[in-house]
Amino acid sequence: xxxxxxxxxxxxxxxxxxxxxxxxxxxxxxxxxxxxxxxxxxxxxxxxxxxxxxxxxxxxxxxxxxxxxxxxxxxxxxxxxxxxxxxxxxxxxxxxxxxxxxxxxxxxxxxxxxxxxxxxxxxxxxxxxxxxxxxxxxxxxxxxxxxxxxxxxxxxxxxxxxxxxxxxxxxxxxxxxxxxxxxxxxxxxxxxxxxxxxxxxxxxxxxxxxxxxxxxxxxxxxxxxxxxxxxxxxxxxxxxxxxxxxxxxxxxxxxxxxxxxxxxxxxxxxxxxxxxxxxxxxxxxxxxxxxxxxxxxxxxxxxxxxxxxxxxxxxxxxxxxxxxxxxxxxxxxxxxxxxxxxxxxxxxxxxxxxxxxxxxxxxxxxxxxxxxxxxxxxxxxxxxxxxxxxxxxxxxxxxxxxxxxxxxxxxxxxxxxxxxxxxxxxxxxxxxxxxxxxxxxxxxxxxxxxxxxxxxxxxxxxxxxxxxxxxxxxxxxxxxxxxxxxxxxxxxxxx
Length: 495
What we know:
The protein is of the alpha+beta class. The protein contains 13 helices and 24 strands. Strands 4, 5, 6, 7, 8 and 13 form a six-stranded antiparallel beta sheet that branches. Strands 16-17-18-19-21-20 form a six-stranded mixed beta sheet, with helices on one face. Strands 3-2-1-14-15 form a five-stranded mixed beta sheet, with helices on both faces. Helix 8 packs parallel to helix 9 and helix 11 crosses helix 12 (454-461). The longest helix is centred in the middle third of the chain and has 24 residues, at 187-210. The N and C termini lie far apart (70 Å). The model is unreliable at 78-95 (pLDDT under 50).
């Protein structure tokens, strides 16, 4: 039985959440006071512009930048509830209401009740939907559509059928999805959770009528309570919290929501930081590196770009014992489990391309794909998987609602501007040569003062000393070399 532990580190400026499974870090997120997530918030927005060429609209909801509403997410703008009866699994896309264009649904100046589904990222505004979803402990209420679904992580068919019958019996407009935490819960507990969501929707409607656009209608739970609601399921053995006020808040929340879990909440009373004491910060350092070592000696290389995430698998130190096919299959199989963990831990989203080590045997390729498919079923984020190509590549998409771990904890290097590389020493020296020659010929100079980083100075006086000799003997230019240790390696000044 897998042991799962949840950690919540809370202070006035930051809330950090980590989850371990069998001692291995599988999930981490941080919310800072100035960059708190707005995902799940409901706003009364005003359409500022409609773009038929993009089939989208920009909506002012009161944030720093206008939010983005795509036509496929705008069907819920209709006044009447949509009669869509197709079964829906948790986290699926909203239903397609037909070939309506953005012009049919929205006009500039129109007001709409919208929900944020993706935080602002970089220069992009928040992503919106009009298909409202209100998550509870066990259920999600969908007031603007009619859909009945059960989380895909609940696999027992008899239980799935029982849960469908329970939510189908709720006689209220809209749709319902049973969350993973709803598995094996009593029918009356599910209905009680549903009634709480219906009451919340009633309050939202009242607030929407009284609020002028743009304005906030409903704010999601605090990071601590949202974590407890969404992540603290019956599969979690312990939940450690290092803040006494947050600890009491969580106990009160659970006593009303799920009393059986109260005994699993523990207060961390030590003076040390919770994450440091349990070695989580040390694991996070590894999660920011592109190379991930496997137990067998192989390794992954994870490269995150603007367009996609590329994951490459290499044999590394592992040489196998029989033949190349067996070696490749062994490393690839071990890589699958680590890839699934890294997707969750790094919170990678969008298009992901995995380059496995080439295998010739079709059975091995199929087994590898099935292993990856099985591993992704446990991923809370929705994924779509494409079969392995002839080149040994597997493509998948993973739903992204927040910046990745790398984007959250780091920034682009101001020297290499995010490329991860800087110019080589010969390249910099030759660039300096061209600059000096251009200046001397343009201004008819015979002497120039050059200030550089110490490493460049040593290179010019060592392996590249012929460059200075050539400038003096061939071009008649004397270079007075000076060093500045505060310079970046690529930086130099000419006087």
